[in-house]
Write a structure and sequence with these properties.
261 residues, 11-stranded mixed beta barrel, mainly beta, globular, 8% helix, Lipocalin
């Protein structure tokens, strides 16, 4: 598996360096709302949108290209493991990686997260996700596209670096995407590489904000896509705390690897 990933990485570096490339600037905005049911079960709903520039206009707010709504169920069977499933609806318009101007999308996914390393200075998670995507074609046919994603993510609390900000952390991640060939998403099997670096600040146990820079490389036949994105994410836990009897989960290793310190 590692050999295949390294070969794929080498392939897209060679292709991107020799092909014509469209450079795009984007803004990603997302809001997460979670509800602790027990120590093992958590519900989540998130919504967001993406705005993008065009090859002729570098303004990242040129137009909204995507907005979405997702519902999650998370299960924590052990200290270092988390299993998740989601169902979602996406509205895509002039999305750079799709071969048409508009495409509605219905997406479901299975996801596994594992905390592979834990120390006071750094927490590292591995994540694998399988996505079943159904994209609307120009003929109003819902085309099935399967996609697999592999991510490694590291989180470092700034307090361990001698900085007196106990609730602030920095994080970095890299993710590889592979997909099946399709009419809407194109014939390429290697979909993209996404690298991110950012920071987060927890205002309380139930509210935090993350800001990050993302770089996406999408090798495509003809013209590749290179995306520079700025992301802002708001994360709310037990938002309606006073409307029902609350349950507060104790954060475990896999939570800390995602920034819940």
């Amino acid at each position: 598996m590692l050999k295949y990933i390294y070969l794929s990485f080498f392939y897209f570096v060679v292709v991107v360096s020799s092909a014509q490339t469209d450079h795009l600037n984007q803004f990603w905005n997302q809001y997460d709302f979670t509800k602790d049911l027990s120590q093992n079960w958590v519900l989540e709903a998130d919504a967001g949108f993406v705005s993008s520039s065009t090859p002729d206009d570098s303004n990242m707010f040129h137009g909204i290209t995507q907005y979405y709504l997702r519902g999650w169920v998370h299960y924590y069977p052990f200290e270092k493991w988390k299993f998740s499933v989601f169902i979602s609806n996406y509205s895509n318009k002039n999305v750079p990686e799709l071969n048409q101007k508009e495409s509605r999308e219905f997406r479901t996914a299975l996801q596994t997260t594992y905390n592979v390393f834990q120390s006071p200075a750094v927490k590292i998670n591995l994540r694998a996700r399988f996505e079943d995507r159904h994209l609307q074609t120009d003929e109003n046919y819902m085309e099935a596209v399967e996609r697999v994603r592999f991510q490694v993510k590291g989180v470092c609390p700034l307090s361990t670096l001698g900085i007196k900000l106990k609730k602030t952390y920095i994080f970095a991640s890299d993710e590889l995407f592979f997909k099946t060939k399709s009419q809407v998403s194109g014939p390429d099997v290697f979909d993209r590489n996404r690298a991110m670096i950012g920071c987060g600040f927890a205002f309380s146990d139930d509210f935090k904000i993350e800001a990050a820079y993302a770089n996406e490389i999408m090798p495509r036949s003809g013209t590749d896509k290179l995306v520079n994105a700025f992301q802002v994410k708001g994360i709310f836990n037990n938002l309606f705390y006073h409307l029902s009897k609350p349950f507060k989960r104790e954060k475990n290793a896999v939570d800390q690897g995602e920034g819940d310190l």
